[in-house]
Amino acid sequence: MRLRQLALLTALLTGICVFAPAAQAAPDQASIMMDDDLLLYRDNVTQTRTLVTMQSMGADAVRVTMLWRIAAEGASLSNQEIERIKGQRNRERARAQKKRFKPNDPRTYPTRNWDRYDNLVKEATKLGMRVFFTLTGPGPSYAHRTAPPSQRRNAGTYKPYPSRFRSFVEAVGKRYSGTYRDENALRQPLPRVSLWSLWNEPNQPGWLSPQSETVNGQLIPVAPTLYRELHQAGVQGLERSGHGNDAIFLGETAPLGNTKRSPINGIRPVPFLREMLCLRPDGTPYAGADAERRRCHTFNRNPTLKATAFAHHPYTKKANPTRNPSSPDEITMGNIGSLGPLLDTLSAQSGGKIAANLPIFLTEFGYESNPPDVVNGIPLARQAEFNQLAEFIAYNEPRVKATTQFLLRDAGPLLRSPVTRKAYRKNSREYWFTYQSGLYTQRGRAKPAAFAYTLPLVVYPAGPGMVGFWGQLRFRPNTAQDIALLLWCPDENNPRTCVQVGEGVPTAFRNFFSGVVPVPAPGGFYRAAYFIPPTGAEPAKIGAYSLAARLKPLGS
Fold this sequence. Notes:
- The protein is of the alpha/beta class.
- The chain is built from 15 helices and 17 strands.
- Mean pLDDT is 93; it is low at 1-23.
């Protein structure tokens, strides 16, 4: 980051903290966590333990991707798929299942397919946590058109049928309407789900393809058109199942992309959103043959993309979260402040096809650590530092209403190719294709980032002889109204050497705290702490120290 940009950022954030809680910030920002592997693809004990851990760390909700292919597994196999099944009795069952299947009726899907989601919704509800479903491909064989040989790699995401996605979403909506009775568990009603997004990272070919193709003689982005139609169909499915007034998120966009147009190259989010709304790069609507190629005429017949918020994944890979991406068409945490104005501009240019002033939810974010990932990871201490700084940046964006930690626990490496079964070379890029952005190692050992998540702290110079600070007692109840303390410590590893700086700071809703105090002495480290007031039996004490933080300019 250039020095001038850093100075401006420091000045902005300093001004916010002086008057905390600031009107410009988002003091009600919610905390979401995501880890599909632990929450959906392990046993029930692991699922429950994961939810309890997430709640104890301060998560308000969990986000999971409901893969269309998983939810509809075996629901309506093609004749060719049925013939490949071993055993005559099993083939007869598959034919009977196909005959009874109605894609908008959850009762006609194989019951076992729903169990992982049912159990999650029930256990999360017991713990007072909300579940946020992202309904997305890849889909089953009947969900999409047949990919050409050149694109078989993304066959499960190739041109999904919007009408069939609408029926799938309707089935899910009916099941989690709050009145649907579980086929298991004594037919008790399943809890209602009211947080939704429709498709994941549609600007990436692994989730939606082709990204671009030749239409009427011209190579154009087509994924924005596919996504627009899928989102509109999904909204109709939610409305038909009684969820029309729920929170429905648009986007779930990935932060980066490629300038080269091809079926397998992802599209950067800014041009993706323009194309989705049938807008040229200069902001004017496509017309004539260009509009026809993008099916803008069908959009004009139903000219809105209904959404209550916009969802985005502002990953920065290894870079400091204050660093701007290489292109303004990319949106990472470094330039997340540009997303709100962009959405408002697109709303105006499109004549209101998306609502103005949409709130923003950051629904995936994290840094991979080294160890274990020697290819994509950053040092453990830096992972914790960057996570906290990213949350501070998000907090100071008034449009951002939630952040999401991805993952809770590191995924294991990918040992061999899922296609050829050839073993990958250890510590190769393919070997570390999975994510190691967890707060815990694969074996469950807490990283520094785990402690930083439960009690984040950012300190920075706030003018001559002054230090600004911001943090959150995330592990405490949202309405606890606690007291946070800032401590200065000459010894990073010995909290007993710490002394309090300034007065205790009352926490706001969700236990955010901030302020500005004089620098007590040169050097040293800072910690935040939770003040436990005295009771009739116990004296006042300090608990839950944050990680030690060194005073330095933001972004350095």
